Amino acid sequence: METELIGGLAATLTTASFLPQAARVIRTNDTAAISLWMYLLFTFGVALWGAYGLLIGSRPVVVANAVTLTLALVILVQKIRHVRAARTKSRPR
Amino acid sequence: METELIGGLAATLTTASFLPQAARVIRTNDTAAISLWMYLLFTFGVALWGAYGLLIGSRPVVVANAVTLTLALVILVQKIRHVRAARTKSRPR
């Protein structure tokens, strides 16, 4: 019983932790310190965790990773926008 | 067999993804866009995942989360330093 409680709390914390980061990125429109590579790798990894959850038939794994994937994509999309905008600015006219 | 491969790749990607973020924070010394709350919650969650791995006797879960915990702590410590430095600056003399 205790083990499942710790696993559930761990999943909740690591999933919920992306909420304040996504909110901050939207509020401040600042992603300068955020690593594009991190969110490219992380988003792909979390999608694979979701597929893994489907394969082993574990609803909590699927749900937790679907939420994390959504939040991570919000951050990734903002970062990609900023990287593109910076490139367009730096291109000679 | 395929399921374990997907799980292993997912764990590798989500763990490795914190390496470019930790490297960027050290290289640029910029954590402005990074959410303190994210890394407080995430670090605690990953530590719980490590404890969960010990309880279920899964070495891969323990090792992957130990690596992620180390990288997340590097980012968290830098962020706390910057938050403290900003507070000291803004305090009236």
TrEMBL record, chains A, B:
The keyword Membrane belongs to this UniProt entry's keyword annotation: yes
InterPro entries the UniProt entry points to: SemiSWEET (IPR047662), SWEET_rpt (IPR004316)
Entry GO CC: membrane
Sequence intervals crossing the membrane: 36-55, 61-80
Signal peptide from the UniProt entry: none
Coiled coil: none
Gene3D superfamilies: 1.20.1280.290
GO molecular function annotations of the record: sugar transmembrane transporter activity
Protein's UniProt keywords contain Lipid metabolism: no
Domain of life: Bacteria
Record keywords: Membrane, Transmembrane, Transmembrane helix
NCBIfam families linked: SemiSWEET_2
Name of the protein this chain belongs to: MtN3 and saliva related transmembrane protein
